[in-house]
Structure formats: structure tokens, C-alpha cells
Amino acid sequence: MKTVIAASLLTALSFSAFAERQSSEPIQVIEPVVGLDQSKVDLGKTLWFEPRLSASNTISCNSCHNLAKGGVDNLPSSIGHKWAIGPINSPTVLNSDLNFVQFWNGRAKDLREQAAGPIENPLEMAFSHDLAVDTLQSIPQYQAWFKAAYGVDTITITEVTDAIATFEQTLRTPNSPFDQWLKGDDNALTTAQIEGYQLFKEKGCTACHSGPLAGGQMYQKMGLVKPFATDNPDIGRKAITGNEFDKFVFKVPTLRNVELTYPYFHDGSVWQLEEAVSMMADLQLGKKLTKDESGKITEFLKSLTGEQPSITLPHLPPSADETARPNI
Amino acid sequence: MKTVIAASLLTALSFSAFAERQSSEPIQVIEPVVGLDQSKVDLGKTLWFEPRLSASNTISCNSCHNLAKGGVDNLPSSIGHKWAIGPINSPTVLNSDLNFVQFWNGRAKDLREQAAGPIENPLEMAFSHDLAVDTLQSIPQYQAWFKAAYGVDTITITEVTDAIATFEQTLRTPNSPFDQWLKGDDNALTTAQIEGYQLFKEKGCTACHSGPLAGGQMYQKMGLVKPFATDNPDIGRKAITGNEFDKFVFKVPTLRNVELTYPYFHDGSVWQLEEAVSMMADLQLGKKLTKDESGKITEFLKSLTGEQPSITLPHLPPSADETARPNI
User: If we measure between CA atoms, which residue out of A191, A194, A193, A186 comes closest to residue A13?
Assistant: First the structure.
């Protein structure tokens, strides 16, 4: 009886803490997406690992957004067709459906639009939408899967990117220690992490890194207070809008799973998380952190590592005689 | 009661057919390996997908022996470091523990010896054993996993290759239609497949393609009766033994899952299975197959596609500050 009361009390307290924290904290809980069409999810997962969407038949979505590695490749920028070096750091696919726009410069409004990009990018998969679709259409098993998921006999890039985007919606990372704390478990965070979170708020980091992603909700200039020194020629949003004041303006990246998604910044120039924290405080907020402060904020950021998606590798159907052969 | 008797009768008949077929047929059933050390299997699976065993941190075992693709990359020869094109077609890892030796020219006696090769091959992962081991040793989670699996504080290449080889032993593909037929299920094969199997034996294919792998038990000259025309400069076993009679002598490849492991032959020059069948009959046995014969043998070969391994992608532990950075 005592146990029941204690448990009920704990639950009530937890709910109360949850309600309070949820309403007052700048970072919100991430939950799994429910209600997705499983046939589209399964097809999208298969396409995610499908290197025949690339000219060489060796590069898949997972090559640069590796689900074994926090949804990234841990390179400054990705390696594509014929060892081309990409122009910008590969953002994580984890929780990416929660970004307000896609790509560093926001040139895609959602994951469907985003998924179309790398297939035809000559530095990435170096294929074309037509060739990718022709490849899928030539394989009887893909014909059957697209028919079952979308009711179509003729596959188009629309179904391809919709399936990939639907799969990507499953790539949430719930139940991080921070989320457990948000939900009322006071023991989910260490003292250093709680102090780090307080510092994170006090120093002003949450001005940009807020919402369920701790980021991904707005654009911001890289080098707001002091210029960011980089060899990377990317000019950010200016390339899209043409406006001078959009120079070096990028989407604020998520800090979810940031412990796994090194190296940091759009140029992938910084490998240590604590160094990235200190630099951001300095360049974006004009504040010099002590070693103790940057260390505690780093500890807090590690509490944003959630449960990584459990992915069973698909079995890709074999090519048919008509399927185009790789261009190496 | 009738059902029970009927079922018992069926079982008895099945066992009897199994016993007869098992003792008389040149190709034998494949079964899963049991009794492996799970901590080594799990560690080996993680290492299988670990691109930090390569200089660029982008190439893993799975890059060329893709478990989503029948354990191969479906390329004439693999793409390695800085887009190097390898000298020979990538053999499937599926059931590879049953090969009597490893590599096309048999230069490794077992999977442990084989696994050490690609890591330091400049055309493949282009790393060194020392650098690969240093990388693993620098990551606390790997230290803990190697300690748990092997009881060692200091990782060496021996544990690395042992873990990978132990995982590879799990990559059997049991329960192919042909194996079900071998076990006594007369309905597991189509009429064309049974006729194709009879032809496969009558034409003499089983002289080389026998045993549980339907291959992998001996060396044989490629172009035994008529020369094999190829641009590939590989001289086969001669490179190992120095003997002129070993020129163009290679390990006979397995035909298990051959439907998935195109393109065919050590040079990866033939993409259609039926064409490969006709060529083999001509070059190795001096026999011209009719279209009907090559078609039926091809149908039989497709009955050798077994259950593909169900692989849950590992979550690779993040690098530490001391971990060497990728060499791109």
C-alpha cells in the first residue's frame, strides 16, 4: 500500500515537474512520430540504403548520413562521386524533420525537397532523377513495392523522395537524459549537467538553440559579434536571397546528439565539442567562458544524446537485365 | 488423429528423402553456425561497419561486402581509397567461412587472415594495422568491449580480425529452396529448377561446384578447355606459388546466392547469370548449352538464394580527442 502511494506520489510529482518544465524550458522534449504509413517507411528505408540511386552504384543516403554514426559521416565535408569533396559539412538526419527548413542555407522547405538534392548533385551521388527512377523502375521488386505503397505503376521522383522523407521521420532520438529530466526525473542529469544547462540559458545560447531540436528553428549569422575565420567559401543565405545582409547567415544547427556529430560548424573545422562551445560564446555572444563554464555546458550538451534508431539493414532486390550498370 | 498420422508419415518420408539426398547429392545443406561467443560476434559486427578502420574514415568492410546486397558491391571490382579501382571482383562474404581458403588466389588460409588484408591494402582501406588499432584503442567504449570479449587491455590486430571473422561466421544463408528440397520438401523447387539441377550434374558442373557452398572447395584453371578472354591482368595462383601451371588458376567461387552476386568471374565482366552459365559450360567443360539448358540451369542456381542475414546496424561509439582524424 505504501509502495502504491509512494509510486502515485512520485508519478504526480513527476507529472507536475514535467508540466512545469515543459511550459517554462526553452528546449522541449522530442517524441517518436506515430501514425506513419508502414509500407512507405519500409520502402523509404530500402531507398535510404540504395546505392543504385547514385551514378557509381556505391553511394547511398547512408554514406553521408550514417545511421551507425549519429546520422553523419564525421568528416569536415562529405566525399562524393569520384572522391569529390563536398562544399559543406553534412548535417545529421536524426530528428531532421523538426528543422524549419532543410540544408544549411534553407534552400529546401522540407525533407521531400531535400531528398531530391544529393541524387543529382555532381559532387554527391552524381546521378539524375530520370536515371535514378529508371533504375528503380527496371527492378520488378521495386515496381511491386511502389505499387503497394503509392498505388502507382510508373515510379516518379515524387514517390522516391516521399518514401525517403517518410522513413526519415522515424529517425527521432527520444529519451535522452535531458528529455527524461524534462519529463520530471531529477536524477537523469548530473550536477554538472544541470549547472551546464543553467549556464547555457544564462549565457544566452538558447536565443538560437531552443525548441525540441535545440536549434533548427531560425537562421543566424555565423560570426554575429566577431567574424568567424574559415577557409570555406560558402556565403550562406546570400546565395539564395542575393541580399548582402544574408552573407554568412545559416540555419542554426540542432544540438541534439551533438556529442556524435563532430566535426562542428558548417565548415567542419572544429573537432572538440568544448572548443566549439567556447567559440560560439565568443563569436556569437561576445562572452569569454571559463574552462569550468565551457566544461559544464559541454557536459549538458552530452545529455542531449538520445536513443539512436534501431535499424535493420534492408535486403536490396537484385538488378534486372535492363537495369543500367554503374558508371565508375 | 488422421492429421497426426499424416504428419508423422510426411515427416518420416521427409527424413528419408533427406537422408537419401544428403548422402547422394554433390551439393550439401548449409546450416547456421551455433555456439559462437556473442560478445565477439557483437564486437565483430560493430567492427564490420566501422569506417575508422580506413584511412579516410569512410570505408568499412561493408562498403565492398554489402550485407544489403548479397555480401558484395555488385561492381566489376571495388572502389577504394581516393576512388582507387581494385584489381579483382569482390567475393561475397556470405557463407565465406566454408571456403577452403580465402581470396580468389587463396593467399589467406582463413577469415582471420583475410580480414587483415583490406585494412592495409592501399587500394582498399589504405590504413595500417597499427593505425587501425591505435584508433580503436583511443576510444573508451572499444577498450571496454575488447576487454569484455577478449580480456585484453591492449588491443592488437589479432583480436580485431578474430572478432570480424567470428561475426562473419554468422553470415550463413540457410533455408534456400534448394536446401529445403535437399531436406525432403519435393515442392520447394519448380520443375525447371529440378531439371536444371539434373543438367547441372549431367554436364559436369558439380566437378567443381560441389559441397555446401557449391564451390569454394578447390582451385581450378579459369579457361580449362578454352582460354578465358579478359583485360584483367591477374594471373591467379601463379602469383603465390610461382608455378607456371598455376597461371589463371583461382579458387572456384561459391554459387550460393549467385543471383545476387553479379557481375561474375574474377574480372566481373559478365552481368547476366545465364550468360555466365553458358560461358562456363563452353570454357570449362567444352560443352555448348542450348538456350533451354542454360535457362533451366540458371533457374536452378536461383534456388541457391538463401535467407539473408538479419543485421541490426550497430551504433558506433564517438571518437575521443586523442583519436586520429581522417586522412582524406
Answer: A186
